[in-house]
Structure formats: structure tokens, C-alpha cells
Amino acid sequence: MTESIHGREIVALLAAQSQGMKEAELLNLIGKQFPQDLFHTCKIKGMDKAQILANMMTKGRIVEKNSVLVAETSCGCKNK
């Protein structure tokens, strides 16, 4: 069985990029880092990389600033 990756891992991956990333670059990096392409949050299971990125953006965990995506690490899941 393939292991699902929590969305906080995507936020951490982006947070490690000091200058942020363009969306396509981040999706490419996610694909390289997590080739199984199976993600979840505390409430939603079974997302692919585009869905988890959209979810993290909707939640404000990843935001767009000056045309690049950056991680908002000050907010997040209460069930860590």
C-alpha cells in the first residue's frame, strides 16, 4: 500500500525554498520529492499534487506574493 503524505510536508518543502517558487516549479518539485502522488490533510484523503497544493492555498498555508508561492508557516494543523 502506498503511503499518503500530509499537506504539511508540502508547506515544509516550500518553506525550505527561501525565494519561494512559481506554481509549475513547485508542482515539479513535489512530483520529484513525492512520486507516489498521494496526499491528505487531517480532513481530506486521496488528493493528488495539484489538489493538495490548491487545498493548502485555500487554507492560507501557501500564498502567492510577487508572482511566487511562499509558505505561511505561522498557521496550520492543530493535530501535529
Describe the structure.
The protein has 80 residues and is α+β, with helices and mostly antiparallel strands. It has one domain. The protein has 3 helices and 4 strands, in the order E-H-H-E-H-E-E. Helix 1 packs across helix 3. It is globular, with a radius of gyration of 12 Å. The mean pLDDT is 91.
Task: Describe how the helices and strands are arranged.
Layout: E1 5-6, H1 7-15, H2 23-33, E2 39-40, H3 49-58, E3 62-65, E4 68-71
Parallel strand pairs: 1-2
Antiparallel strand pairs: 3-4
Summed up, what is this model?
The protein is built from 3 helices and 4 strands, in the order βααβαββ. The chain is an alpha+beta fold.
Entry keywords:
globular, 15% strand, two-stranded parallel sheet, 4 strands, 80 residues, two-stranded antiparallel ribbon, 38% helix, alpha+beta
Distinct helical segment count: 3
Helix-strand category: alpha+beta
**Estimated share of beta-strand residues:** 15-25%
What are the secondary-structure elements, in order, as H or E?
A: EHHEHEE
Number of strands: 4
Helix content: 25-40%
Radius of gyration: 12 Å
Mean pLDDT: 91
Distance N terminus to C terminus?
A: 23 Å
Please give the order of strands in the largest beta sheet: 1-2
Biggest sheet features: 2 strands, parallel
User: How would the global form be characterised?
Assistant: globular
Overall structural domain count = 1
Q: Which residue ranges are poorly predicted, with pLDDT under 50 across at least 5 consecutive positions?
A: none
